[in-house]
Amino acid sequence: MTILPRLLVAASLFAALPTLANGKVYRWTDSQGHVHYGDQPSGNAREVAPKAPPANPGEPAAKSTAAAAPSAEECQRKKDQLATYRSAGKITETSALGETREFTAEQKQKLIEKTEQAIRDICGAT
Question: Could you give the number of structural domains in the chain?
Fold first, then answer.
């Protein structure tokens, strides 16, 4: 990158500082369906909250504790699913095209093991 493009980038960032300082960001879609963001509302614009950058650059942002905590309902749903798989005489799967296939005994066992792992991941090691 030569010096002129670097100067243009630096000038653009410097010019954007007042926009970043007021903290309001708007999102709107133009007549061609393109999404735009800016500091001034336009047409069908609505205010959006920008995401905070991660505390340590290069690391993903931490999940909120509410989102990270396993849901008791999700845990119970997986346990119910496991009980259904274990008690089923046969397991069939239907594709979006309506084609049905039956799982072999080995495939059923792998599905049970995968569901058991999902329960450990979601509910914790119990």
Answer: 2
Query: Does a structural domain hold residue 46?
Result: yes
Q: The domain containing residue 94 runs over which residues?
A: 66-123
pTM: 0.44
> What pLDDT, on a 0 to 100 scale, did the predictor assign at position 125?
64
Tell me which range, 2-11, 57-66, 101-110, is most confidently predicted by mean pLDDT: 101-110
pLDDT tens digit string along 55-65? 666 655 555 44
Cα dihedral 85, 87, 88, 89 sign: positive
- Regarding whether 72 and 46 lie in a shared domain, the answer is no
Burial class (CB in 10 A: 0-12, 13-18, 19+), 111: middle
The rounded distance, in Å, linking the Cα atoms of 119 and 48 is 36
**Alpha carbon distance 126, 70 (integer Å):** 13
